[in-house]
Design a protein that fits this description.
By secondary structure, the protein is mostly helical. It is built from six helices and no strands.
């Protein structure tokens, strides 16, 4: 079963969850975090920040898609949907099925899902930390270049005043 109802619900829920986690702050809030920077510097940083968030969104969604393909989520969800349909069509189905077996199978599926999502989250957090480090490094470089520019301006002013 390719791209069934269960799979599309899963992917839609995941995307909504990721969107909630990675929603960007307003430009005004962002600029308030950098009071010592010029408007041009704030603009460049905000542009970089938006690029990072967009890239992070795409990377997480791509990783999720790859994980779904790797673990054959669509096949598993298709099988579950078929089982559910069979159960609703056959009133005696519960008599034929060992509930402990079903509970164990669902428990195993959920544990695997949790393990996979935890791994994805750890990868995303590591990637997010890397991006944060890059932004901090860029901020330091901008600050250092601003300090150097100020020092040059002061030395020029001092030379002309002597």
């Amino acid at each position: 079963m390719a791209n069934g109802h269960g799979e599309s619900d899963l992917k839609r829920s995941f995307k909504l969850g990721v969107h909630g986690l990675l929603t960007t702050c307003s430009k005004e809030e962002f600029c308030k975090a950098f009071p010592g920077f010029t408007n041009a510097e704030k603009e460049r940083l905000h542009h970089l920040y938006i690029q990072v968030i967009v890239s992070l969104h795409q990377n997480i969604e791509d990783e999720f898609e790859a994980l779904c393909e790797e673990t054959k989520v669509d096949d598993i969800l298709g099988s579950i949907e078929e089982l559910v349909e069979e159960q609703t069509l056959d009133p005696l189905y519960l008599d034929k099925t060992n509930l402990n077996t079903v509970a164990q199978a669902l428990s195993t599926l959920k544990k695997n899902e949790i393990r996979n999502l935890t791994t994805m989250l750890e990868k995303s957090e590591a990637h997010n930390n890397l991006l944060r480090s890059r932004v901090e490094l860029s901020q330091k470089e901008i600050h250092n270049s601003s300090d150097a520019s100020n020092a040059v301006d002061k030395s020029k002013t001092g030379m002309w005043n002597n």
